[in-house]
Design goal:
Blueprint: E1 8-13, E2 17-22, H1 31-45, H2 48-63, H3 65-68, E3 72-74, E4 79-81, H4 83-87
Length: 105
């Protein structure tokens, strides 16, 4: 059984249509689509590769709390980067990075 916490804001529209909008999601998804997306995201987060990267980043953050302050660990460049720089693949976008395997301890 999977558990996840999501906070929703209910928006009512004509014809009694209800749209659930998560305060954590940028997309406007129906309740069914939001549940499916949450399940996909959780499944992806639990893959061995993602778990290894998360554990590696946590170890590095604990070892260097001052250097890690306000930064994300970039597994490709092996350094701390701003979240915007890291998530945007240094301005190159994330499509070319998809499926790559990066070093973790």
């Amino acid at each position: 059984m999977s558990h996840y916490i999501t906070m929703y804001v209910f928006v009512f529209i004509r014809n009694d249509t209800v749209i659930l909008k998560s305060i954590y999601m940028a997309q406007k998804l129906s309740a069914e689509a939001a549940k499916k997306k949450a399940a996909r995201d959780l499944a992806y987060a639990k893959t061995p590769d993602r778990r290894a990267k998360k554990a590696d980043a946590q170890r590095r953050r604990r070892a260097d709390p001052n250097g890690a302050k306000g930064k994300d660990w970039d597994h490709k460049n092996q350094r701390w980067e701003s979240p915007a720089q890291n998530r945007g693949n240094d301005g190159l976008g994330t499509k070319s990075e998809s499926g790559k395997k990066y070093k973790t301890k």
